[in-house]
Design goal:
This protein is α/β, with parallel strands linked by helices. About 50% of the residues lie in helices and about 10% in strands. It has helices at about 1-15, 30-45, 65-85, 105-110, 125-130, 145-155, 165-170, 175-185, 195-205, and strands spanning about 25, 50-55, 90-95, 115-120, 120-125, 195. The strands form 2 sheets. The protein has a 4-stranded parallel beta sheet, sandwiched between helices. Strands 5-6 form a two-stranded antiparallel ribbon. The radius of gyration is 17 Å and the shape is globular. The protein starts with a helix and ends with a helix.
């Protein structure tokens, strides 16, 4: 009974917010990108039924690109069963890093054939997106070099203890448009690039609807 009540509540919220699209942001890590998106969504005042963030790849055996699509589709299927097809997502953003993943290019190729799942990958890492808030660069950088640069730009930045809401987001907020412009001008053939700007741009649009 409680389950049905929850389902009806969700449907009512969806109907009340019908002019807005619903998006799902699926991240393969549980700290950096997840905390960033949660802080961003909250800062923009977007309802969590409109922009949802979920984590995949928590088991070591699943934390690699070749399992990402399978896990993303499992998330979509579960939510479709729970809320109904008509209440499911208009767009799904898949956030993953190149790092040392051997199947990175293969997953990107597969995503090109997907209708709703959008490649939001970064090479070499998510932190390149953060760096573009401060620097316009298309240089080929390693993860180590990016972190070194970030520490110069973001006060007290520590990758493993990221808490964007409490520590870092205030230093990023006013630079989002800059990061979007910097990112979209970088060719994806570069060793360093990020498609996270697609999500940031979508979230800004949703906040104005």
């Amino acid at each position: 009974m409680a389950k049905d009540r929850k389902k009806v509540t969700f449907a009512r919220v969806k109907n009340a917010l019908k002019p807005k699209d619903r998006i799902l942001i699926v991240c393969e890590d549980s700290k950096r990108s997840v905390e960033y998106f949660l802080a961003f969504i909250e800062d923009l005042g977007i309802n969590k039924t409109i922009a949802t963030v979920k984590i995949i790849g928590q088991k070591p055996s699943r934390n690699k690109p070749e399992t990402i699509l399978e896990d993303v589709n499992n998330v979509i299927s579960k939510d479709m069963s729970r809320y109904g097809k008509e209440n499911c997502y208009d767009r799904v953003y898949c956030v993953f890093d190149k790092d040392k993943h051997p199947c990175f290019d293969k997953v990107r190729e597969t995503l090109k054939m997907e209708d709703r799942i959008i490649d939001s990958s970064s090479s070499p890492c998510f932190e390149f997106w953060l760096l573009l808030h401060f620097k316009n660069t298309s240089k080929s950088l390693s993860s180590k070099e990016i972190l070194k640069e970030l520490k110069k730009q973001i006060k007290n930045y520590i990758k493993q203890k990221s808490s964007y809401k409490k520590l870092y987001f205030d230093q990023l907020r006013d630079k989002t448009d800059t990061a979007i412009n910097n990112a979209k001008n970088i060719k994806e053939t570069n060793c360093s690039y990020t498609n996270v700007y697609l999500i940031a741009r979508d979230l800004l649009k949703l906040s104005k609807m």
